[in-house]
């Protein structure tokens, strides 16, 4: 036994760590490869209801931009913007896209509109609007990501989402 020096014991320890790491990598790789194969492929559609959702959402986002800019310049009252945002959410909610990505985007847009009108209401009542606006922006970014990822497949089916990006 070599008590004065630690070098002879270090090599077997390092080698065993390397062996354990290699075994873990070899054991885990097939698991992750199997999970990747199990991930379902999204089947995109471009039905009439998908196109209706796209048109409705594009129009409502344009209208929201109009109302938001009017609120910022003082030409619109917060109550008007809140009411219009709630109507926009109801119009988006009335759509029924069949494409999974558009259906997911619909839910995200509804939540985004809800957070936006809550931010406007909070600001109008001299409360903290920031958390609601941050959630609204985060949801808008999430919707953008979902649509960006689905854009090529939806375009191949005949649905153009570029106006919402």
Structure, explained:
By secondary structure, this protein is mostly helical. The chain folds into two domains: 1-39; 48-164. The chain is built from five helices and no strands. The chain has helices at 7-38, 48-73, 78-93, 100-124, 130-157. The longest helix is centred in the first third of the chain and has 32 residues, at 7-38. The model is unreliable at 28-39 (pLDDT under 50).
Topology:
Layout (H helix, E strand, L loop, with lengths): L6 H32 L9 H26 L4 H16 L6 H25 L5 H28 L8
Beta fraction of the residues? under 5%
Topology as a string of helices (H) and strands (E): HHHHH
Give the oligomer, counting copies of the same chain as homo and different chains as hetero: single chain
**Largest sheet descriptor:** none
If helices are DSSP runs of H or I spanning 4 or more residues, what is the number of helices?
5
Low-pLDDT stretches are 28-39
The Cα radius of gyration reads: 26 Å
Q: What would the principal axes of the Cα set say about the shape? A: elongated
Number of discrete domains: 2
Question: What can be said about this structure in brief?
Answer:
Helix 2 (48-73) runs antiparallel to helix 3 and helix 3 runs antiparallel to helix 4 (100-124). 77% of the residues lie in helices and 0% in strands.
